[in-house]
Design brief:
Layout: E1 11-16, H1 27-35, E2 38-42, H2 43-49, E3 57-61, H3 66-77, E4 82-87, H4 97-106, E5 112-115, H5 120-128, E6 129-130, E7 136-140, H6 148-160, E8 164-168, H7 178-186, E9 195-200, E10 208-213, H8 214-217, E11 226-230, E12 236-238, E13 241-243
Parallel strand pairs: 1-4, 1-5, 2-3, 2-4, 6-13, 7-8
Antiparallel strand pairs: 8-11, 9-10, 9-11, 12-13
């Protein structure tokens, strides 16, 4: 997009900081944080990086204040400051890239750069081996911004398409049965012995992985920090790992 010179005010970087471990943050993400004057984010994520950037001004807020953070970014950038808006994973996957760009469009602010990160579908998959080696989709089970009936439809059609499925936000305090309900929906289409896996607390203390069948998965404990992987019809278990073949003839 062309950015008229007269509309440039400071700079906003939208940064996905990865799964939590600083070693898994992309180099460009680290550069953007280094170049910024101010770091803005949800308290959980600012706490994870605070020690690494002791000289930066940090502006933090709680849950469901996403648009307030976006407005604050533009206010500071229009003062000529370099602002880093952070979130976990990748900013473009259920992150802050979309709301920030929507706000920037409304406010006619052009200097926004989206910095790629490592989303849980990728960092979690690496811990499980190769569960998404072929076509896959990501579905969030959170119904805060998406109607429950639409989530159900997406689960059914993804299962019918024989895609590997990655589930984000499988359960929370208000949705304790979220993963169980999703499994029950998919079990109307998929066989109970479909290979699945899960990873808890990716890149943080208490990381845990597990392999199970779809029928077993619905009884597993899960939280917002759990990422779930449902294999396709070719997926298989190898010890503590999942393999979804790409389709090559290995002889």
């Amino acid at each position: 997009m062309e950015r008229p010179e007269d509309k440039r005010r400071g700079m906003i970087y939208v940064v996905g900081t990865g799964p939590g471990d600083e070693d898994m943050m992309t180099g460009r993400a680290k550069d953007a944080l280094d170049e910024s004057d101010v770091i803005i984010g949800y308290r959980l994520y600012t706490d994870l990086i605070r020690k690494s950037y002791p000289d930066k001004e940090i502006v933090e807020s709680g849950m469901r204040q996403e648009m307030d953070r976006c407005r604050r970014c533009i206010e500071l950038a229009r003062q000529g400051r370099r602002v880093c808006l952070i979130c976990s994973g990748d900013a473009g996957v259920y992150g802050m890239a979309s709301p920030m760009l929507e706000m920037a469009q409304r406010e006619d602010f052009y200097d926004v750069e989206i910095i790629p990160g490592v989303t849980a579908a990728l960092s979690g998959a690496a811990l499980l081996g190769a569960p998404i080696g072929h076509d896959f989709c990501i579905i969030s089970l959170s119904d805060l911004l998406t109607p429950a009936d639409l989530i159900e439809k997406r689960l059914k059609y993804a299962a019918m398409a024989d895609m590997c499925i990655v589930l984000y936000n499988p359960a929370s305090r208000s949705r304790a049965e979220g993963l169980k309900k999703a499994c029950d929906i998919m079990l109307t289409i998929l066989p109970p012995d479909r290979i699945c896996g899960y990873v808890m607390n990716i890149g943080r203390e208490g990381t845990k992985t597990g392999i199970c069948t779809l029928s077993e998965l619905k009884d597993e404990e899960a939280s917002m920090q759990t990422t779930v992987f449902i294999g396709n019809s070719k997926s298989r278990r190898w010890g503590d790992l999942m393999i979804t073949p790409r389709g090559y003839d290995i002889g």
